[in-house]
Amino acid sequence: MQEILEAIQTGASGDDIANLTLPESTRAAHVLRSEAGMWEGVDSWDKDPRQSLHVGELPLPELAPDEAVVAVMASSINFNTVWTSIFEPLPTFGFLDRLGKESVWGARHAQDFHIVGSDASGVVVRVGSAVRNWKPGDRVTVHCNYVDDQDPSAHNDSMLAANQRIWGFETNYGGLADLSIVKANQLMPKPAHLSWEESAVNALCASTSYRMLVGDHAGRMKQGDNVFIWGATGGIGAYATQLVINGGGTPIGVVSSESRVKLLNAMGCDAVIDRRAEGYQFWSDEHTQDESEWRRLGKKVRSLVGEDPDIVFEHPGRSTMGASVFITKRGGKIVTCAATSGYMLEYDNRHLWMKLKSIISSHFANYQEAWEMNRLIDKGAIQPVMSEVYALDQVGDAALKVHHNEGEGKIGVLCLAPEAGQGITDAAKREAIGEDRITLYQRHARGEL
Length: 449
Ligand code: NAP
Description:
Quinone Oxidoreductase, Chain A, domain 1; Rossmann fold; seven-stranded mixed β-sheet; globular; binds NADP nicotinamide-adenine-dinucleotide phosphate
């Protein structure tokens, strides 16, 4: 691996990189099938990813014709790695086994280890025989939409493909490793003005928010829309907030601390709700919701922006869905991509049908949406929201931080990159976009705001 790293750092040619010998194994963060039952009866909160996420050497499979091997300089923690590491709602080995039964190439994924991670930036070091648009030496970011595009169900919107999967969650050989295997269709050009880790944190969360709010399939936000955003400084929320401002809308950002309020204000979001300070109790007990609390939230929104939200950006799930449906404007949309606090949801259907509201589901992003989002980041219109960086060996600590809602935005992970700050090849563009804007979340984490 040292030879590969040196070649990347000294700017070796694509041909030289193509001629390097690839190791047969890689250092990688993974969970083990033998440990999937380790926490029976333990409360979710107490399941500690530091115990289940291991970092060690694992064998790499043969490369399929439509795939590439990427030398991963940096990756990031996504909530799906938290789900994998706590084996909830199900151990991910079931996904790998199903993929294993689909084809000869799919069988490579059904292992007793699962290499996790659904983001990466790095350098292509090998391509399969059918790859045309990418070559060794290309600097890339990787999105996580893993689709067999020979299936006709993938032809219109690849997120509707019958065999659509999330790389590094529903497939093996994910991005939290020194070498990763991806389909060539997952590759996108790395923004030259960002470091490896700043480039690595965006694709999963930003593209998810793009589809939820901007793409043709979900919220289809218009200029002037009021968009209510739960977790507005979290992984997906921090990109949602930026997309709303960039698209001429008004974000109403919800967070749970004074420090996050400050961060939202620094992003240009003026309508902010501190849900902890307000003390909302949407559930009066495990089975009963309190409509007066929904009403109190609705009034708060009107006091801030004078209107009800056109779109509610929903992902906490059980704890908030009743309130989300209630506060949405007549004819408005609740766009949901997750249910962190519980997936059996309850809302009062009268508030939905009588006011002609719609609940729209959304999941990651199709190829085009992921590419458009990468373009916005490359143009400097949307900034990475990386607050901190961990080494791959500390991946368990980083996942615990996300699990316990202790970090802001995204946490980057250095894989082959020996230190943070490397990989910027267009310093002039960085300067034009503005160091302060690019590093806002890092500065906030250092207490500099
Ligand atoms: P994150 O970085 O942890 O941010 C989530 C934010 O939501 C938190 O910062 C928190 O903000 C807020 N929150 C958490 N629990 C809440 C509750 N009970 N009530 C109100 N607000 C709550 O996570 P993320 O990366 O944004 O992901 C959020 C969810 O989306 C996860 O379940 C993840 O798996 C899912 N997801 C789905 C997709 C997809 O393609 N379907 C893609 C990405 C993520 P405050 O405490 O500051 O309010």
